[in-house]
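Input structure tokens:
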């Protein structure tokens, strides 16, 4: 009996060792087929543009096709769930914003994915600034003037966002809280209809991305008052930040991260991290990102749990105070 147990244990150990060797060999040869990047936004938008720019860079470094697959819907949750449930072999990645990782969890108690446990971070990629913009009929040309006007007429001013629970909604509510003003929130289904109504004068103010705002700013159809990021936008270098305008500590932006399903083999993770780092060091890549409104901000992420958990707590507090709820 002892001999039989010993033989079984030896066979099990050999099988595990063989499996580990096989997995290591596969990881060492990674990638052996095309890699897909899931982008949980519609084609043609800022997130899609970034995905396609990054895919070309990664393709050159990995030696295999890198294909962008758009899976929009449910505030990025459809694409996020797809990647969370994918095999952790390095062939399915997710390029998404804090909408996926911190905004959704802050306002939705039950999600189809765990933003912390489901993903393996490969690196921070970029930030997308938002800007507080006004219709030309608004007399204020600065944050200070707007705050004074809003306090003088508390029920007059409305601001548009691209939806309940979106980063632009959070930016607006944070501004109201910081400045101590009353602004009525008008949610739209996306940036485009909000910008259309702002340009048309149906709403006086909006928090929108610099990508959407800059073309209209250049033609004088709207005017910028402040950007929401910690530093000024390279697309709007003369526009101050909200923090510079008298509200230090104010900061809200869309930050973009590339992740994989949790459980990625270490060799595969290292190869992807190296490819991403090299891609983000490429001068042409950085200039193209800036050209479409992104601020390159590559950084490895050592404490995913701490980073995401801290931001969820911050945003949840804002959501509770401002009664931000999903549609």
């Amino acid at each position: 009996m002892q001999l039989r147990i010993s033989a079984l244990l030896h066979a099990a150990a050999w099988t595990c060792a063989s499996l580990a060797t096989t997995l290591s060999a596969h990881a060492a040869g990674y990638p052996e087929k095309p890699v897909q990047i899931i982008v949980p936004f519609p084609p043609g938008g800022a997130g899609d543009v970034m995905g396609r720019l990054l895919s070309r860079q990664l393709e050159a470094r990995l030696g295999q096709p890198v294909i962008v697959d758009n899976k929009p819907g449910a505030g990025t949750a459809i694409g996020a769930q797809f990647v969370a449930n994918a095999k952790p072999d390095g062939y399915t990645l997710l390029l998404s914003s804090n909408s996926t990782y911190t905004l959704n969890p802050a306002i939705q108690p039950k999600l189809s994915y765990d933003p912390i446990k489901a993903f393996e971070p490969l690196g921070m990629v970029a930030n997308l600034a938002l800007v507080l913009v006004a219709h030309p009929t608004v007399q204020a040309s600065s944050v200070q003037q707007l705050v004074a006007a809003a306090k003088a007429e508390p029920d007059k001013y409305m601001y548009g966002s691209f939806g309940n629970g979106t980063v632009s909604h959070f930016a607006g509510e944070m501004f109201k809280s910081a400045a101590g003003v009353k602004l009525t929130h008008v949610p739209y289904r996306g940036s485009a209809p909000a910008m259309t109504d702002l340009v048309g004068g149906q709403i006086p103010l909006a928090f929108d991305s610099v990508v959407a705002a800059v073309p209209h700013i250049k033609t004088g159809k709207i005017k910028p008052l402040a950007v929401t990021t910690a530093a000024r936008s390279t697309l709007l270098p003369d526009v101050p930040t909200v923090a510079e305008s008298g509200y230090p500590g104010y900061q809200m932006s869309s930050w973009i991260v590339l992740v994989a399903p949790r459980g990625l083999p270490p060799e595969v993770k290292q190869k992807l991290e190296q490819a991403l780092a090299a891609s983000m060091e490429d001068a042409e890549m950085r200039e193209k990102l800036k050209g479409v409104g992104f601020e390159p901000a590559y950084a490895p992420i050592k404490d995913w749990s701490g980073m995401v958990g801290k931001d969820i707590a911050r945003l949840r507090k804002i959501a509770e105070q401002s009664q931000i709820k999903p549609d």
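The two ends are 65 Å apart (CA to CA). Residues 24-128+255-322 form a domain with the D-Maltodextrin-Binding Protein; domain 2 fold (CATH 3.40.190.150).
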